[in-house]
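quick q for whoever's on today - can somebody do inverse folding on this one?? i tried earlier but teh output was garbage lol. tokens:
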């Protein structure tokens, strides 16, 4: 088993903070046995019978938060999220000092799309179990889904600092990059390489960081190092072709990109290999003024993107939701507190189609 799989299993266990061990689960031995049976049923995929058994136990002990927690888990397994939320709310009302109830409520709210509510419950759970890495991972992903990358990075950093695993460091680096923290992202990626991350992919990110700074010599060095480490790294080809095309031997890189495409060694995820390589070839042919070939590669790349999007009907909805969350009313109101006042006239040159661009 790889170190990353071990890590993920550990984090899943830590996402469920230990229940309060200072108090007995129940004063009835049959309830204790039945709670163990509920978990066994859930593990076997029999969530319906598990939920029914939990309801029977509530007739015996209606104020036992362990039973409400178990019922919520069984209902969540069956996809009855609204009912599960009700059970978890009963749990946290009865035992507000127990992190597990808040954690499970957070997970259920996030699965239903209530990201702000899920984050609020996650924060409450972290107050009670601050070292639960799975909770930090959950909060980070929720913030990331809302495009609140700085807050996401805080939680990903808590995970990476604790584990030191390269996958967690890479995740932190990507999030810091999206948060425009270039120095922090670079430090995270360099640590990831030290901890055994794939040099090709991670070194590409170092190249992108230096490109964003305008340090093109350093970017060029990192991207060439990435290709040496992994000649099939699509984004190394694309970055060199697009951003640094005036520094490379275009014909040689066309041959390198073609060889990578024909190698049969590209990643299964076409967005990491096939698609960036097609875009790279398009830019390279464009530099050679071979526009027919350039258009052909652009079409192949775009067709692959459209095909992948058609396989995921919810992708557009997720992107729209991310935009909605990122530009909420509070964020727009905050913009009014920034800027510079001036009575000088502003002239906008261009050909706006409907006037909206001009207004903006």
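ok took a stab at it. sequence:
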């Amino acid at each position: 088993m790889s170190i990353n799989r071990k890590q993920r299993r550990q984090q899943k266990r830590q996402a469920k903070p230990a229940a309060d061990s200072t108090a007995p689960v129940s004063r009835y031995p049959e309830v204790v046995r039945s709670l163990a049976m509920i978990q066994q049923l859930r593990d076997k995929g029999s969530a319906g019978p598990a939920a029914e058994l939990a309801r029977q136990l509530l007739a015996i002990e209606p104020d036992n938060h362990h039973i409400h927690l178990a019922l919520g888990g069984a209902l969540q397994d069956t996809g009855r999220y609204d009912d599960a939320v009700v059970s978890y709310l009963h749990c946290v009302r009865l035992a507000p000092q127990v992190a597990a109830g808040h954690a499970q409520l957070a997970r259920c709210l996030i699965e239903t799309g209530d990201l702000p509510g899920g984050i609020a419950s996650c924060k409450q759970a972290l107050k009670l179990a601050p070292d639960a890495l799975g909770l930090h991972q959950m909060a980070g992903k929720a913030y990331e889904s809302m495009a609140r990358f700085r807050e996401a990075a805080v939680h990903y950093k808590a995970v990476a600092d604790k584990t030191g695993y390269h996958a967690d460091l890479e995740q932190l680096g990507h999030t810091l990059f999206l948060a425009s923290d270039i120095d922090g992202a670079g430090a995270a990626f360099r640590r990831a390489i030290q901890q055994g991350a794939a040099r090709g992919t991670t070194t590409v990110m170092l190249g992108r960081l230096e490109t964003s700074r305008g340090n093109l010599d350093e970017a060029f060095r990192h991207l060439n190092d990435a290709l040496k480490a992994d000649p099939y790294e699509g984004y190394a080809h694309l970055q060199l072709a697009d951003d640094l095309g005036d520094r490379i031997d275009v014909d040689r890189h066309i041959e390198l990109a073609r060889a990578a495409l024909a190698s049969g060694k590209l990643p299964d995820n076409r967005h990491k290999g096939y698609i960036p390589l097609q875009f790279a070839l398009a830019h390279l042919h464009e530099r050679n003024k071979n526009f027919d070939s350039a258009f052909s590669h652009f079409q192949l790349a775009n067709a692959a993107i459209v095909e992948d999007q058609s396989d995921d009907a919810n992708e557009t909805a997720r992107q729209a939701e991310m935009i909605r969350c990122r530009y909420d009313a509070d964020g727009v109101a905050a913009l009014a507190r920034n800027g510079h006042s001036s009575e000088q006239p502003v002239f906008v040159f261009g050909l706006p189609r409907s006037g909206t661009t001009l207004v903006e």
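fwiw The mean pLDDT is 87. also The chain is about 70% helix and 0% strand. so keep that in mind when u check it
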